[in-house]
Amino acid sequence: MSSCFNGGAGWPEPVVRVQAVSDTCGETIPERYVKPPNERPSTTTPQPAASSHGISGPNIPVVDMSMPDSEETARAVEAACREWGFFQAVNHGVRPELLRRARSSWRGFFRQPAEVRERYANSPTTYEGYGSRLGTAKGGHLDWGDYYFLHLLPSSIKSHDKWPDLPSTLREATEEYSEDVVKLCRTVSSLMSRGLGLDGGRLHEAFGGEGGEGACLRVNFYPRCPQPDLTLGVAAHSDPGGMTMLLVDDHVRGLQVRKDGQWITVDPVPDAFIVNIGDQIQVLSNAAYKSVEHRVTVSAAEERLSLAFFYNPRSDVPVGPMPELVGPESPAMYPEMTFDEYRVHIRQRGLSGKAHLQSLQSFRSAASS
Ligand SMILES: O=C(O)CCC(=O)C(=O)O
After folding, report:
1. Which atom of ligand 1 is closest in space to residue 239's alpha carbon?
2. Which residue of 111, 184, 246, 252 is 20 to 30 Å from 281, comparing CA positions?
3. Which residues form the Fe2OG dioxygenase domain (predicted)?
């Protein structure tokens, strides 16, 4: 058990791997993982059960990326981003074989002995590596999940030495996967721009243009949990970056999206990417597109793996509402801030609902009053 602790790496308390907790805690989870009653999944209004073929309750839209009319695709993406901030992209062009290889390589990492995993233990300075908590607030509630975080773009900060060397398939699979997913992000970014009535390259330009964009990957691993009604795999948050391409296990549900005050459980379409707007695109679009709160529930019966690919603006480019979207009827809702500046808050406080974006908005109101 001692190899599952990672003290002295800059965290305020020794870090315990949730995998180790799951293996040893029996029927009762430690107090640190028990969420306050109003945050527990069990207090959520139940959603109608999904049928085996589809969903009987509301669910996030599905967008077919292979439609021959790209205007129609742009309209579907726009509607989803305005109304839900989320959609599932199907027929997206990334090979199912590659999706499976990426998933199985990362599952393989979380199945390595603890001493192999611990070689990559992370610190709160960059978060890069194997981790078990977000945020450095002492004594806070913890999420029921471990993760691996790594940088992909700009290539100057990508370092294979910081990626696991086991299983042996992992580095090549992650490299290939990230190349294909970046291409998909560029396609989706162009559709999102057009949906705003702008040139297809406008968001890409606002992200820093050719070679400017940033990308990183967080692979989440949620072990089985004996009391899933009391905890969450990831607490409610919006994504701080530009957009997220999420690949989840086809057969295990867990992601919930907040819509009109209700938590909607997403039914994953096999091999789809779940795409969502992050805070930076909400700011650039002057709140036309929504960066929506989501969270993850865990299961007593099955572990779950997800790959969250974050596509971000260049870290030192000022990000504010795009001037074309600002006018007398739609004043700028946010001040300009670089993604690096924005990230500083998140790294200190961890993910917390929509608090970061709301604090930007109050900064704007205070500045203009
Ligand atoms: O695991 C999931 O379904 C979502 C993960 C997520 O929200 C995140 O990594 O930010």
Report:
1. 10
2. 252
3. 212-313
